[in-house]
């Protein structure tokens, strides 16, 4: 076989070659360009693997014409870029992965669909550096990481969708062990793990999950995924994970904790919404365990449900919550919105309309601490047991509105707290990916706050003093 455009013939005179050898190098061949089409016509290959096999150590660019390819591609330690026409699909022929990447390889894949029929392996298995843009991976089945299993190395995915995959163990869509992960504008939908991590399972991985910088759609959407164990959307253990501008919705931990996320990692979440997730165990939205820290900023928790503690968040790791809204979350245990079993800091939160159906603390239940609370609305929550708004002990840092203080013991700074009043908030409404509640005209929280952060949940500027209490600053 020959390349579509051929290889350039290199003629090197003796004197220049000697000069090259003097500086300790050798002439490097330019990467070749190959083409692939279904018929193998016009000097092109008919299989992607044949083009990969023709690649030298200097790597190649492989341009794949539109069509359906039945191939299992293995890329050794080399550099390869595969560019496909949109709507081009590759199907696996065997129970091996459709794409296997060796350690040390550097591979880029653009505009390619990977589709299997639930065979016994992940569709993509990589130990190298893999970058993918505008790809789709669906109907894959494997033990760990049904669509993609990355072991070490580096994985970068942008503008892509990973849909309807099923893992017999962990990571219904994606599993990664070690290495660095970057996801930007990637949707994970309808994946299922028989273990943990319905969509994503990470172990000792440094991960960044976000959207692009234009601050509009598209965004990271992790929706309708299920785990038989914990982490209906995401399960993380070790490493460091950052999530920004993500929507985690309608995910389920059917037999464990964390309907949206179970984390034993250093986890930070910003500008995101965690909504309508459910768990059999703790944390309808999120269960945070381990050494932490666990931080959530400028985010919303709505409609999450747990059969145990912490409808929105169950915090078993040191935590910090700032500029967040909790509305309509439900626990059958303690803490309709938040269950805190460790020390933490709460600032400028709106916690209302949450329910503890059979336990204590419709808003927040604190069993350990200290938990410091400042500039926060804690009202209009309900509990079957004690403490409709709060149960347990917390250290007030002042400027809070607490509707009903029965069931909780409040220490610390209380001189500017407001108690026994309705915060008079508007109905929940979407603002970008988040859900917020704006104080109505005449609300007692307007201009009565302190310890004011520079911005609110949706980036409105706040005054240095006498900001609004809660997550939202009225313009």
Walk me through what this model shows.
The protein is mostly beta strands and 475 residues long. Helix 2 links the parallel strand 1 and strand 2. It starts with 13 loop residues before the first helix and ends in a 39-residue tail after the last strand.
Secondary structure: elements and pairs:
Elements: H1 14-22, E1 32-36, H2 48-53, E2 60-64, E3 68-70, E4 73-75, E5 79-91, E6 99-101, E7 106-115, E8 124-126, E9 129-133, E10 136-138, E11 141-142, E12 148-151, E13 154-163, E14 166-167, E15 174-177, E16 180-189, E17 192-193, E18 200-210, E19 220-223, E20 226-227, E21 234-244, E22 246-249, E23 252-253, E24 261-270, E25 273-275, E26 278-279, E27 286-288, E28 294-297, E29 300-302, E30 305-306, E31 313-315, E32 319-322, E33 325-327, E34 330-331, E35 338-340, E36 344-347, E37 350-352, E38 355-356, E39 364-366, E40 371-374, E41 377-379, E42 382-383, E43 390-397, E44 401-402, E45 408-413, E46 418-419, E47 429-431, E48 434-436
Parallel strand pairs: 1-2, 2-5, 3-5, 4-6, 5-7, 6-8, 7-9, 7-10, 8-12, 9-13, 10-13, 11-14, 12-15, 13-16, 14-17, 15-18, 16-18, 16-19, 17-20, 18-21, 19-22, 20-23, 21-24, 22-25, 23-26, 24-27, 24-28, 25-29, 26-30, 27-31, 28-32, 29-33, 30-34, 31-35, 32-36, 33-37, 34-38, 35-39, 36-40, 37-41, ...
Antiparallel strand pairs: 47-48
Quick structural gist:
The chain contains 2 helices and 48 strands. With 475 residues, the protein is mainly beta. It starts with 13 loop residues before the first helix and ends in a 39-residue tail after the last strand.
């Amino acid at each position: 076989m020959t390349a579509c455009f051929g290889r350039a013939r290199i003629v090197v005179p003796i004197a220049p070659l000697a000069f090259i050898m003097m500086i300790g190098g050798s002439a490097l061949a330019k990467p070749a360009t190959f083409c692939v089409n279904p018929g193998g016509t016009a000097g092109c290959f008919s299989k992607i693997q044949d083009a990969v096999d023709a690649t030298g150590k200097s790597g190649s660019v492989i341009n794949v014409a539109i069509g359906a390819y039945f191939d299992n591609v293995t890329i050794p330690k080399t550099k390869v870029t595969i560019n496909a026409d949109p709507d081009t699909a590759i199907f696996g022929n065997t129970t091996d992965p459709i794409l296997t990447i060796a350690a040390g390889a550097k591979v880029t894949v653009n505009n390619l669909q990977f589709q299997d029929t639930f065979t016994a392996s992940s569709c993509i298995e990589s130990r190298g550096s893999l970058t993918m843009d505008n790809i789709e991976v669906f109907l894959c089945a494997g033990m760990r990481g049904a669509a993609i299993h990355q072991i070490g190395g580096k994985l970068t995915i942008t503008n892509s969708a990973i849909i309807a995959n099923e893992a017999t163990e962990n990571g219904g869509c994606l599993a990664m062990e070690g290495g660095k992960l970057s996801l930007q504008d990637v949707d994970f939908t309808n994946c299922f793990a028989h273990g943990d991590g319905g969509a994503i399972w990470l172990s000792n991985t440094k991960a960044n999950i976000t959207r692009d910088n234009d601050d509009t759609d598209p965004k990271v959407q992790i929706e309708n995924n299920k785990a038989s164990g914990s982490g209906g959307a995401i399960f993380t253990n070790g490493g460091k994970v950052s999530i920004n501008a993500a929507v985690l919705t309608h995910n389920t931990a059917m037999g464990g904790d964390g309907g949206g996320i179970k984390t034993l990692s250093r986890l930070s979440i910003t500008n995101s919404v965690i909504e309508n997730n459910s768990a059999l165990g703790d944390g309808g939205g999120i269960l945070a365990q381990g050494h932490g820290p666990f931080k959530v900023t400028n985010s919303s928790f709505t409609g999450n449900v747990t059969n145990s503690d912490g409808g929105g968040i169950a915090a078993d790791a040191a935590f910090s919550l700032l500029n967040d809204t909790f509305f309509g979350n439900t626990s059958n245990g303690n803490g309709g919105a938040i269950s805190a079993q460790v020390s933490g800091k709460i600032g400028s939160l709106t916690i209302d309309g949450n329910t503890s159906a059979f336990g204590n603390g419709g808003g927040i239940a604190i069993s350990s601490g200290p938990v410091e609370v400042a500039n926060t609305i804690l009202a209009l929550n309900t509990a079957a047991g004690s403490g409709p708004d709060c149960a347990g002990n917390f250290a007030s840092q002042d400027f809070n509105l607490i509707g009903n203080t029965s069931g909780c013991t409040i220490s610390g700074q209380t001189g500017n707290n407001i108690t026994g009043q309705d915060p008079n908030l508007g109905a929940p409404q979407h603002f970008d990916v988040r859900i917020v509640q704006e104080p109505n005209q005449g609300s007692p929280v307007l201009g009565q706050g302190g310890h004011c952060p520079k911005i609110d949940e949706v980036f409105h500027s706040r005054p240095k003093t006498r900001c609004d209490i809660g997550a939202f600053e009225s313009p």
